[in-house]
């Protein structure tokens, strides 16, 4: 019998845990009703009242969508990263095959209820269908809901087709993407803190969904985990820690945007918010208890407390989800729309104009981007955690590599949270300087830190059929697609094509005007730069690297491409993304075309400095490689009396003899 198959019902009443997962649904609905009643969000309106069915039905459908999202995303995470082969995996596959379509169907219903609520129109009135079509096709919030529903339908198809780890991961990526439209049009996303609000909504929904769904899967599969229960609980505990951190950070940011000050906690909205905070604190305490006490007890055969705590957690998560939906549908104490006349910069960029770029501002400017802030902190925590894990078991890891990773992460943090994030949004020259750092400076530091080698040494291997981070990493490194895109020649082509294609296409405008476009731009720059630098000077296992002359040729080709592109920008008379950079109207005065020429100078001149550094590193590596080859030949000569040299001398003597004759 496989270790993943049940070997008898777990101790402590695990057979009765699953009803608590189902009980989370009425708990969430009840919490939604209580929250709506406290905040008054579903009270009749004096003008344009859509009726009680819409006022109460839309939030209730919203909480059901959240629960369906949780079952879908949480189940997919468990399938992709946590569960071993066996009965529990089959049960979870069936769960996501049902939850995905339910999410899609509820999203369609939410389209109708959402329009009725916004328009103040009862469902089914005269002209309702035509108005709904106009709302979905012409109004930004309606288009966002329509895109979300279409993506939910695609997620449903992917969930029905889940058959293994790869298909589960693909469905999970699609499911995460389906959360973006709702976050972009969410409660705080339409405020003057647009990007902070969007990141807050997205992070909160994602973290809550994976956490809630994972707990539900544990409850539903309790009888089927058998001897693997402790390992599964340990793995999910690690996932839950990150989810809790994401929920707390994003929730704090979102709450601050809506509340503004502690005084507002005394309002009805504040009471519901405090209730949700109390529930999250309780859930965090339960998670801490799991990690420190109950999982160890499970390994000793005493798992009754664990399953009881899981049951309580599932119910509490349902209550928290209901209160969250009630808050999202309620008017917060702080007005979310900007007050007063907007400046041209705010109208075009959705941000207030930054202060004059003095040296002090360049050093101290800060932009609160939750997404990249979380990524930077996670990069530091994960890498240093792996180093400590090696040290605890007595292994060594070079200090220079650790310092290189820390330096690269700090540089990245400055680029995405400091002055480059503030001024790069409105000045192409600063944007270009950040681009050069994304593709050259940060990747050099990260590549020299050898993160893949560290991960393979620190992460445990699994033998129960599940796929952990180590298995996924090895799969990517050794996959045909991974080897292809990491090939130095291919990486160099992508590296050059990215620069030209991005700036001479609508992608530049997309990255400047949308937050998701900006995120994708930064991720692509970093990844393309990392693959290129790793192909030249990488330490990690990866593609077959060519000889040093070919590597230098590829490096010089990219330097030449930078130079030609920089010269092109310096001589252009047409403004790139003119509808954006030409309409900003910065109060301290910027000639957009002159700034574009400065961007060309940066691409041509300053951008070559890191490339020279890579050339030096390549030369040093080439010299070390030659030295190692010479030592290897010397050792071989000592062993065999330098047979190779004797054969070479004999060949020369034979040639000389033939010439004399």
Name the overall outline: globular
Structural class: mainly alpha
Helix content: over 70%
Give the low-pLDDT segments: 1-15
Largest sheet: none
State the order of secondary-structure elements, H for helix, E for strand.
Answer: HHHHHHHHHHHHHHHHHHHHHHHHHHHHH
Number of helices: 29
Report the radius of gyration as a whole number of Å: 29 Å
Secondary structure blueprint with pairings:
Blueprint: H1 18-39, H2 52-82, H3 87-119, H4 128-138, H5 140-160, H6 165-178, H7 180-184, H8 194-220, H9 222-225, H10 229-259, H11 268-299, H12 304-328, H13 344-349, H14 359-364, H15 370-392, H16 399-417, H17 419-423, H18 428-448, H19 451-458, H20 469-478, H21 480-486, H22 488-503, H23 507-513, H24 515-537, H25 548-571, H26 578-581, H27 592-606, H28 608-640, H29 643-660
Helix pairs in contact: 1-2, 1-8, 1-12, 2-3, 2-6, 2-8, 2-12, 3-5, 4-5, 5-6, 8-10, 8-12, 10-11, 11-12, 15-16, 15-19, 16-18, 18-24, 18-27, 22-24, 22-25, 23-24, 25-27, 25-28
How would you explain this protein's 3D organization?
The chain is mainly alpha-helical and 661 residues long. The protein folds into three domains: 16-328, no CATH class; 364-621, no CATH class; 628-660. The chain has helices at 18-39, 52-82, 87-119, 128-138, 140-160, 165-178, 180-184, 194-220, 222-225, 229-259, 268-299, 304-328, 344-349, 359-364, 370-392, 399-417, 419-423, 428-448, 451-458, 469-478, 480-486, 488-503, 507-513, 515-537, 548-571, 578-581, 592-606, 608-640, 643-660. α15 (370-392) packs antiparallel against α16 (399-417). The relative contact order is 0.08. Mean pLDDT is 83; it is low at 1-15.
């Amino acid at each position: 019998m496989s270790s993943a198959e049940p070997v008898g019902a777990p101790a402590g009443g695990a057979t009765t845990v699953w009803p608590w997962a189902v009980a989370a649904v009425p708990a969430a609905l009840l919490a939604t009703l209580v929250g709506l009643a406290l905040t008054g969000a579903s009270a009749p309106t004096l003008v344009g009242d859509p009726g009680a069915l819409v006022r109460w039905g839309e939030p209730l459908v919203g909480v059901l969508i959240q629960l369906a999202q949780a079952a879908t995303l949480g189940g997919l995470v468990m399938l992709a990263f946590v569960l071993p082969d066996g009965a529990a995996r089959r049960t979870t596959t069936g769960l996501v095959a049902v939850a995905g379509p339910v999410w899609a169907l509820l999203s369609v219903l939410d389209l109708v209820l959402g329009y009725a609520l916004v328009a103040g129109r009862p469902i089914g009135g005269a002209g309702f269908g035509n108005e709904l079509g106009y709302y979905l096709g012409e109004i930004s919030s309606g288009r966002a809901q329509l895109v979300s529903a279409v993506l939910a339908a695609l997620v449903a198809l992917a969930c029905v087709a889940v058959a293994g780890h790869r298909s589960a991961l693909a469905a999970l990526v699609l499911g995460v993407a389906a959360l973006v439209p709702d976050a972009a049009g969410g409660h705080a996303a339409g405020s003057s803190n647009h990007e902070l609000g969007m990141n807050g909504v997205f992070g909160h929904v994602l973290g809550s969904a994976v956490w809630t769904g994972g707990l539900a899967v544990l409850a539903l599969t309790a009888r089927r985990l058998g001897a693997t229960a402790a390992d599964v609980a340990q793995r999910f505990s690690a996932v839950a820690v990150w989810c809790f951190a994401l929920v707390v950070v994003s929730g704090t940011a979102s709450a601050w945007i809506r509340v503004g000050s502690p005084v507002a906690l005394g309002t009805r909205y504040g009471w519901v918010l405090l209730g949700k905070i109390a529930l999250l604190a309780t859930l965090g305490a339960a998670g801490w208890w799991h990690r420190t006490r109950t999982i160890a007890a499970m390994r000793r055969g005493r798992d009754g407390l664990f399953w009881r705590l899981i049951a309580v957690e599932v119910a509490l998560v349902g209550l928290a989800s209901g209160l969250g939906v009630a808050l999202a549908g309620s008017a917060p104490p702080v007005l979310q729309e900007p007050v007063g006349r907007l400046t041209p910069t705010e109208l075009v960029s959705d941000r207030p104009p930054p202060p004059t770029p003095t040296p002090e501002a360049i050093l101290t400017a800060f932009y609160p981007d939750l997404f990249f802030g979380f990524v930077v902190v996670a990069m530091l925590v994960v890498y240093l955690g792996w180093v400590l894990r090696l040290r605890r078991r007595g292994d060594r890891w070079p200090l220079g590599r650790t310092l290189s990773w820390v330096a690269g992460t700090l540089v990245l943090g400055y680029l995405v949270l400091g002055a480059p994030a503030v001024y790069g949004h409105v000045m192409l020259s600063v944007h270009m300087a950040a681009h050069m750092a994304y593709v050259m400076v940060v990747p050099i530091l990260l590549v020299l830190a050898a993160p893949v080698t560290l991960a393979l040494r620190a992460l445990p291997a699994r033998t129960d059929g599940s796929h952990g981070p180590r298995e996924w990493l090895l799969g990517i490194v050794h996959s045909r697609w991974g080897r292809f895109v990491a090939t130095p020649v291919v990486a160099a082509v992508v590296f050059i094509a990215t620069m030209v294609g991005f700036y001479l296409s609508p992608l530049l405008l997309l990255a400047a005007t949308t937050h998701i476009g900006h995120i994708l731009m930064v991720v692509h720059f970093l990844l393309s730069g990392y693959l290129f630098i790793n192909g030249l000077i990488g330490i990690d296992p990866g593609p077959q690297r060519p000889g040093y002359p070919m590597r230098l040729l590829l490096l010089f080709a990219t330097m030449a491409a930078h130079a030609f592109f920089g010269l092109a920008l310096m001589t252009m008379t047409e403004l790139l993304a003119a509808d954006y950079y030409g309409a900003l109207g910065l109060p301290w005065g910027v000639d957009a075309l002159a700034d574009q020429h400065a961007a060309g100078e940066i691409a041509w001149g300053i951008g070559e400095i890191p490339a020279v550094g890579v050339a030096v590193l390549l030369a040093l590596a080439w010299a070390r490689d030659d030295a190692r080859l010479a030592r290897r030949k010397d050792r071989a000569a000592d062993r065999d009396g330098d047979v190779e040299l004797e054969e070479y001398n004999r060949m020369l003597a034979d040639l000389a003899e033939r010439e004399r004759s």
